[in-house]
Amino acid sequence: MKIAYLIIAHDNFDHLKRLIRAIQTEYTYFFIHIDRKAPQVSLDEFYHVQVIPKHYAIKWGGFSMVEATIELLKTACHFDAFDRYILLSGVDYPIKSNTYIKELFEKNQTINFIEAEPMPTVNKPFDRLFCYRLECERNVTLKSLPVKAVNRLVRLSGIRRPYPQEHPDYRPFAGSQWWAFNDAFVDYLLNFLSENAEWITFFKHTFVPDEMFFQTIIMNSPFAATVRPTLTYVDWVSGPPYPYTIQKLHLNLFKNEFIYASHRLSIYCFARKFNDDSAELINEIEKIRSKY
């Protein structure tokens, strides 16, 4: 079992290093995207770690997040063959032991873990897909203000785009962006992307495409029956902020093998989000991990 961890990071680099230390083994490899806007960080102390040379300036809600993810996948596949590809953020942390995670994947080699629900949902309406949108910074600045104004005018106009003509019968799906794909689906995915340029062009002008792009592809593929819920726990109930930063109140939850979240009881191997000040909390989580 060889595992490729694909990590998207832009800050909290002390925690990023804690994350790598926690899941580094002889069978794990790390491919890391550092945001172009972030300060430089050295990860030379680790082995099997590669910071990919291409750095995107990721904007929340924009296609740059998907571009970084695809680049991570391509880099990992070019480097070697892996049995499992796991997408994490730099502020994630494991809540199960490495042995537990490895055995879970060994027992479920045909399963792809990703949240994917048919659209529209309460939080993911069709406007995210069919309303043309230009990527811009989340915060209002002199640079982003004109783009935000254009996006608002387009949204209020009621003008909507048609679905990509290459796959008009594809039903759209959406869910959390964090996933764990097996090698068979990753091969299918990269071949699909190389043969469907129109699909990428369409999603470049959608809103929060990282929560629709991969979900829609897999659920309209021969791998749809292999999909199971994501392995990354995120607290969208507590807060603000959203998602809520992991606190001591979550520790009792993590002691259970199955956790109730997102209206279901499921296995979670990772949680987000943490920060550089989470060291004391991480020590408590390590005690929990040791029992798995």
Q: Quick recap of the structure?
A:
This protein is α/β, with parallel strands linked by helices.
Q: How would you characterize the overall build of this protein?
A:
By secondary structure, the chain is of the alpha/beta class. The chain has one domain: Spore Coat Polysaccharide Biosynthesis Protein SpsA, Chain A. Helix content is 33%, strand content 17%. It has 10 helices and 14 strands. Strands 3-2-1-4-9 form a 5-stranded mixed sheet, sandwiched between helices. It has a 3-stranded mixed sheet with strand order 5-14-11. A two-stranded parallel ribbon has the order 6-10. It starts with a strand and ends with a helix.
List strands and helices in order, with pairings.
Elements: E1 3-9, H1 13-23, E2 28-34, E3 49-51, H2 64-79, E4 84-89, E5 92-94, H3 98-107, E6 112-113, E7 117-118, H4 127-130, H5 144-157, E8 173-174, E9 180-182, H6 183-195, H7 197-203, H8 213-219, E10 227-228, E11 232-234, H9 251-254, E12 258-261, E13 264-267, E14 270-272, H10 279-289
Parallel strand pairs: 1-2, 1-4, 2-3, 6-10, 11-14
Antiparallel strand pairs: 4-9, 5-14, 7-8, 12-13
